[in-house]
């Protein structure tokens, strides 16, 4: 993957679904955890967006860069946070140069090209989005989107 536009389109086909997934979440449901030590719905959503932020900033900077930490108290704030994080992440992705995509970056003891880190980031997001589908069902949300969007 060296074409960043193709990557962005593939990533957005999954991220757009995250927006749809949180559309019906209520403020009360945000704190739902399927088990005591698990993340809440809100924490899982923020883990998804914060991890992608970390990966794209790491590729942008060439060294590990922590992602943004956010906390929200209402479902409307959560939805706005997802929207803002998505736009910020896409802006950074669009700014990446071919050199940044091919540079080797030390990532927890592994030296990986930037484009490999981005693919790992997308796979990580897909993994946790799958978990979120289960969380939302358990929290009582019956209407959920298809796992990928082409729109």
Q: What does it look like?
A:
With 151 residues, the chain is mainly α. The chain has one domain (4-138): Four Helix Bundle (Hemerythrin (Met), subunit A), CATH 1.20.120. It is built from five helices and two strands, in the order ααααββα. It has helices spanning 4-21, 41-61, 75-95, 98-102, 114-138; strands spanning 104-107, 110-113. The protein has a two-stranded antiparallel ribbon. A hairpin with a 2-residue loop joins β1 and β2 (110-113). α1 (4-21) packs parallel to α5 (114-138), α2 runs parallel beside α3 (75-95) and α2 packs antiparallel against α5. Pfam families: DinB. Belongs to the DinB family. GO terms for molecular function: metal ion binding. Keywords: Metal-binding.
CATH architecture: Up-down Bundle
* Helix fraction by DSSP (H/I, runs of at least 4): 55-70%
Strand content: 5-15%
The CATH homologous superfamily name equals dinb family like domain
Strand order of the largest sheet: 1-2
Unreliable spans:
none
- Helix and strand pattern: HHHHEEH
Q: What's the helix count?
A: 5
- Largest sheet: number of strands, sense, barrel closure: 2 strands, antiparallel
Using the CA coordinates, give the radius of gyration: 16 Å
Count every beta strand, where a strand is a DSSP E run of 2 or more residues: 2
Structural class of the helices, strands and pairings?
Answer: mainly alpha
The total domain count is 1
Binding site for a divalent metal cation: 47, 124, 128
Keywords: Metal-binding
GO molecular function: metal ion binding
Family: Belongs to the DinB family.
């Amino acid at each position: 993957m060296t074409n960043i536009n193709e990557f962005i389109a593939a990533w957005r086909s999954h991220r757009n679904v995250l927006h749809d997934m949180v559309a019906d979440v209520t403020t009360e449901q945000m704190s739902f955890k399927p088990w005591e030590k698990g993340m809440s719905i809100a924490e899982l959503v923020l883990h998804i967006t914060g991890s992608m932020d970390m990966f794209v900033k790491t590729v942008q900077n060439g060294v590990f860069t922590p992602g943004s930490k956010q906390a929200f108290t209402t479902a409307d704030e959560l939805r706005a946070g997802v929207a803002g994080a998505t736009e910020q992440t896409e802006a950074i992705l669009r700014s990446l140069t071919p050199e940044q995509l091919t540079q080797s970056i030390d990532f927890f003891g592994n030296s990986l090209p930037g484009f490999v880190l981005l693919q790992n980031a997308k796979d990580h997001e897909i993994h946790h989005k799958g978990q979120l589908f289960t969380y939302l069902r358990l929290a009582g949300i019956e209407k959920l989107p298809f796992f990928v969007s082409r729109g």
